[in-house]
């Protein structure tokens, strides 16, 4: 196998015999990953032999070799590659057997959801990075144990600093301050915490901050995304299993709860679990014990539980879709992470921090943002929250050819701020409520003129051409609306 230099973005190989499925996966992933595609196992094998691949996303049903068969081969030849299987096949026992035989990291049912798939792969990339770091540390342990001990200590300190509340980017007026103050007060105590908030608001980061400010900070912080697996797979992941518990269970496996013993377990998207599974989870929280699949005895565990959801669980309890007793076990303390649209005052600071990280990631330096660009970033509602802001800044940085990131680099949806979730009446939101029809239409015309000029970097000839105006006509409108720029 030829060695290639490590790419700056994590690499994903998509193996699927359907071209439309390949393209859908590529569109979902290509902003965050370098994506390779293959139509069958043989083509994927050739890519693996020439490219450095971190994650494989493989369809189960393909002509010739099935997904599990191919991933079993990958496991023997490239054991460090994380393997994810996609399928509409729902027989849990066969799924678990395939997962274990091929060492599959995650199993996703079709039809997959773009946000769920992207979140799963982002987590997988972090896991792969941590695995590589652990391997390097293990190698150093064999050659220089005292040096390694110091490095492990410094790694723990880095984790403390990274997830300290002082490291959460926010302004003195931020609504996030109240959340952080509450975390400061409850983190030292072994109380269950339920964190609610939209996707991309940083719920997992807040959970880590709770862990690293608790008496459990020296022990494990274990994450499980509960919405990504069917019940039996989730049970196997959380509680583990004994050898022979099902076909393909060739050895005992510790579950997430056992891995987190003495530390903290973070159950993300707990609201997506079924009522049947909620009963099994409730027993762990009530009794402090669980029974692995195939075991005859229960095991005790000492774990602090932090859960997160984007659902309104109180409403689901009232509707009868989420167990009331489990809710109150999880929600000893509740935290709500405000979405980014409620934190406009934080965006300049947050954008600066994300830009610093992006420059290190891409190896490209700029002086910062233009005033226009920051104003547009602060005005946009960011339905994808911090994750969307991070992606937009990386995109701007990649496209930049000037010392500062200007507003012309922004995606059109951000330039056309304020956006209103694609509603049919969104034009009304662009027009001020005060004034008559003439004043309102002039305000809309001024907004269109400014957005067009920003996109064309204030090149009046190009802007006039796009708008179907002469340069003289455009200049007259700019003077009229006070949009002339020196």
From TrEMBL:
Coiled coil: none
CDD domains the record matches: AAA, REC_HupR
Key word Cell membrane present: no
Metal-binding as UniProt keyword: no
Record-annotated Response regulatory domain positions: 11-125
GO process annotations (BP): phosphorelay signal transduction system; regulation of DNA-templated transcription
4-aspartylphosphate sites (modified residues): 59
An annotated Gene Ontology molecular function: ATP binding
Parts of the chain that traverse the membrane: none
Span of domain Sigma-54 factor interaction: 169-398
Keywords tagged on the record: ATP-binding, DNA-binding, Nucleotide-binding, Phosphoprotein, Transcription, Transcription regulation
Pfam families in the cross-refs: AAA_lid_14, HTH_8, Response_reg, Sigma54_activat
Protein name, as recorded: Hydrogenase transcriptional regulatory protein hupR1
């Amino acid at each position: 196998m030829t060695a290639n230099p490590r790419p700056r973005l994590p690499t994903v190989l998509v193996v699927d015999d359907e071209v439309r499925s390949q393209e859908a996966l590529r569109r979902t992933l290509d902003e965050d990953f370098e994506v390779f595609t293959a139509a069958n196992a043989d083509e994927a094998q050739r890519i693996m032999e020439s490219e450095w691949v971190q994650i494989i996303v493989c369809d189960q049903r393909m002509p010739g070799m099935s997904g599990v068969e191919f991933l079993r081969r990958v496991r023997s030849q490239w054991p460090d590659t994380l393997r994810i299987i996609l399928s509409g096949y729902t027989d849990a026992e066969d799924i678990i057997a395939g997962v274990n035989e091929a060492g599959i990291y995650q199993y996703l049912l079709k039809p997959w959801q773009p946000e769920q798939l992207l979140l799963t792969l982002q987590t997988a990339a972090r896991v792969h990075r941590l695995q590589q770091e652990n391997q390097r540390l293990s190698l150093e342990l064999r050659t220089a144990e005292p040096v390694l001990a110091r490095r492990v200590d410094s790694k723990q300190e880095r984790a403390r600093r990274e997830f300290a509340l002082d490291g959460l980017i926010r302004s003195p007026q931020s609504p996030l301050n109240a959340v952080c103050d509450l975390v400061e007060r409850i983190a030292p105590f072994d109380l269950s915490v339920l964190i609610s908030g939209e996707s991309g608001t940083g719920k997992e980061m807040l959970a880590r901050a709770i862990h690293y400010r608790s008496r459990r900070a020296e022990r494990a912080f274990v994450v499980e995304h509960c919405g990504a697996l069917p019940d039996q797979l989730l049970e196997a992941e959380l509680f583990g299993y004994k050898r022979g518990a099902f076909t393909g269970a060739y050895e005992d496996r510790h579950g997430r709860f056992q891995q987190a013993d003495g530390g903290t377990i973070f159950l993300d998207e707990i609201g997506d679990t079924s009522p049947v599974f909620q009963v099994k989870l409730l027993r762990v929280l009530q009794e402090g014990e669980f029974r692995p699949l195939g075991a005859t005895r229960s095991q005790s565990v000492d774990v602090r539980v932090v859960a997160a959801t984007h659902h309104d669980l109180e409403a689901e309890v009232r509707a009868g879709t989420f167990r009331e007793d489990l809710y109150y076990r999880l929600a000893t303390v509740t935290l709500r992470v405000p979405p980014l649209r409620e934190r406009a005052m934080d965006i300049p600071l947050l954008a600066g921090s994300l830009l610093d990280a992006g420059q290190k990631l891409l190896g490209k330096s700029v002086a910062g943002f233009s005033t226009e660009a920051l104003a547009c970033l602060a005005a946009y509602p960011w339905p994808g929250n911090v994750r969307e802001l991070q992606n937009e800044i990386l995109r701007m940085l990649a496209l930049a050819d000037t010392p500062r990131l200007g507003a012309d680099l922004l995606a059109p949806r951000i330039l056309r701020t304020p956006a209103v979730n694609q509603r049919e009446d969104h034009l009304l939101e662009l027009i001020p409520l005060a004034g008559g029809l003439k004043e309102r239409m002039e305000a809309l015309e001024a907004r269109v003129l400014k957005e067009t000029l920003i996109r064309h970097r204030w090149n009046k000839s190009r802007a006039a051409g796009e708008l179907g105006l002469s340069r003289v006509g455009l200049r007259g409108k700019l003077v009229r609306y006070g949009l002339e720029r020196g």
